[in-house]
Write a structure and sequence with these properties.
single chain, six-stranded mixed β-sheet, alpha/beta, 6 helices, globular, Metallo-beta-lactamase, Chain A
């Protein structure tokens, strides 16, 4: 399988390109609009045809490339069923499977960071999960806007993600310290917000982060509800 982790340094965002083989079909997860030239170059060099572009949730810190990729490649845009974006071609329901040329992607509803966040599990000999902003490496996504809920975050992580198995690789939507990959076991044992904590303790931690709003939130959220397209386009 072709698996590429790409990074946008401005927002600290990871995007992911998956394809089963050269010359086959591909999908992008959490693409950033400013990185479009790099994405198109990679698609050409790997000789893959993009058929789906997915977001894990409505991002507040960058503008998505879903609409731009659809314009150029004629791919389908995909998000979870609770997204308020009306520009999406297909809305995945919880536990729905997306099969792309031998790649099996299962949608897992994991609210908490936002009330419409999904994670995407990748089957195969080495299972992996793309967690978006719900579970980060040695951290978790903030829960103080866009319908976020710390209790729901705890439940999503402990009841939906941790049962995926200790050896499952964790690929987050963000990192700000240079970490690229983890495992379910590592996060269960070493994540300082989760390891040895109770649900009540976690909720208290999240309530006292006192983080500033993302700098691009007022621009990014409205843009992303339109798949990152200029106003008036779908």
């Amino acid at each position: 399988m072709i698996f590429r982790q790409l990074f946008d340094s401005t927002s600290g965002t990871y995007s992911y390109l998956l394809a089963s083989r050269r010359g086959g079909e591909a999908l992008f997860v959490d693409p950033v609009r400013e990185q479009m030239p790099a994405y198109l170059q990679l698609l050409t060099e790997l000789d893959v045809r993009l058929v789906h572009a997915l977001d894990t949730h409505t991002h507040a810190d960058h503008v998505t490339a879903l609409g731009a990729l659809r314009d150029v490649t004629q791919c389908r845009t995909v998000m979870g069923e609770f997204s308020r974006a009306d520009c999406v071609d297909h809305y995945l329901s919880d536990d729905e499977t997306l099969d792309v040329d031998g790649i099996r992607l299962r949608a897992i509803y994991t609210p908490g960071h936002t009330n419409e966040s999904f994670s995407y599990w990748i089957g195969g000999p080495q299972p992996a999960v793309l967690t978006g902003d719900v579970l980060l490496i040695r951290g978790t996504g903030r829960t103080d806007f866009q319908g976020g809920d710390a209790g729901a975050s705890w439940d999503s992580i402990t009841q939906r993600l941790f049962p995926l198995g200790d050896e499952t690789l964790v690929y987050p939507g963000h990192d700000y310290k240079g970490w690229t990959c983890s495992t379910i076991e590592e996060e269960r044992r070493f994540n300082p917000r989760l390891a040895g904590r109770t649900r009540a303790e976690y909720i208290d931690i999240m309530a006292n982060l006192n983080l500033p709003d993302p700098k691009m939130m007022d621009v990014a959220v409205p843009a992303n509800l339109a798949c990152g397209q200029p106003e008036g386009r779908d």
